[in-house]
Amino acid sequence: MSATRLIGGLLGLLLGAASAPAPAQAEIAPLLAAAHAQIGVTKLYDGRYERIAFPGGDVPLERGVCTDVVIRALRAVGVDLQVEVHRDMRTNFQAYPQIWGLSRPDPNIDHRRVPNLETFLRRHARSFTPQENPDSFLPGDFVSWRLERGEPHIGIVSDLRSADGRRPLIVHNIGAGTRAEDVLFQWRMIGHFRYFSAPDATPQ
Question: Which of 6, 80, 110, 145 has its CA 20 to 30 A from that of 163?
Answer without folding.
Answer: 145
